[in-house]
Design brief:
Blueprint (H helix, E strand, L loop, with lengths): L1 H26 L14 E3 L5 E4 L2 E4 L2 H10 L3 E2 L5 H13 L12 E2 L2 E2 L2 E7 L5 E14 L3 E16 L6 E5 L3 H14 L3 E8 L4 E5 L5 E4 L2 E7 L10 E2 L4 H18 L1
Parallel strand pairs: 3-14, 11-15
Antiparallel strand pairs: 1-2, 3-9, 4-7, 5-6, 7-8, 8-9, 9-10, 11-14, 12-13
């Protein structure tokens, strides 16, 4: 029994080392944008709660982001005012379009989002794809500024599980939204190069500031924006390191179970 207890203790210690030290270090990669290793991986709500994870980044000017998202079929979100708040309420209640409806405030670097865009689904502001961007002090691909973003899908309106306030509830599959935004930008011809770096890291049962569940493979998609449309040319896709490829294959196996 003592021998079995020792082996069990060794096994537990080994598991802890592998699961919490070795594998997370093995899966972190910032080879194409090293400065990202020092940046946050999550937003914060105005109440100080952990918000939506950061899962996208774009390299380019503000003007290039606005042109690229417009070409991809995304509309700028209005600022939160009394008028825009009444308009989004009417959109939800009366089920009528509001393609420029405001999005709630999330904080990064202690400030609200610099830009926000959305894409209506179903003809009202009840359901929509939306993304928030914050400009960073980091530059890449020469001297292009890096904008960090959090893209999610609003699946409906309800009460926050954390505060009881009226809010949108997000769909749990963050990777689907990340990949969808990248596809839209690439199809519009505004991405010259894309790759990934480590974001939040693999998460199977995360919660955002509203208490909504999410899951993600933890990769942050990076897009280098074109200064002019690429006229039919596809973006250059840079492959991740081999350990990340292995991790992504494992994630593809468990992702259907997470969706259920």
């Amino acid at each position: 029994m003592r021998r079995a207890a020792r082996w069990l203790a060794f096994a537990i210690v080994g598991w802890l080392v592998v699961a919490y030290l070795a594998l997370p270090s093995f899966w972190r990669h910032y080879e194409r944008l090293p400065a990202m290793a020092t940046l946050p991986t999550r937003t914060v709500t105005p109440a100080g709660l952990p918000g939506d994870p950061l899962n996208v980044a774009v390299l380019g000017s503000m003007e290039e982001i606005v042109r690229a998202t417009a070409a991809a079929g995304w509309s700028p979100a209005d600022a939160i005012t009394l008028r825009s708040s009444l308009a989004i309420a009417a959109s939800v209640v009366l089920h009528r379009p509001d393609p420029d409806a405001p999005v709630s405030t999330l904080l990064l670097f202690g400030r609200p989002q610099d830009l926000a865009f959305e894409q209506d689904v179903g003809g009202s502001a009840r359901q929509r794809h939306h993304v928030r961007f914050w400009k960073t002090d980091v530059h890449g691909d020469g001297d292009a500024p890096v904008w960090l973003g959090a893209v999610t899908f609003d699946r409906g309106v309800g009460l926050s599980h954390e505060t009881g306030q009226i809010t949108h509830h997000i769909a749990p599959d963050l990777d689907a939204e990340r990949d969808g935004l990248m596809r839209d930008l690439e199809a519009a011809g505004w991405i010259t190069r894309r790759y990934s770096v480590t974001g939040l890291g693999p998460t199977v049962d995360g919660r955002n500031g509203g208490g909504d569940r999410f899951y993600t493979d933890g990769e942050l998609a990076v897009a280098v924006l074109a200064t002019t449309p690429l006229a039919g040319r596809r973006a250059e896709v840079l492959a991740p390191p081999v350990p990340i490829v292995i991790k992504q294959q494992f994630w593809s196996w468990i992702r259907p179970a997470l969706a259920e």
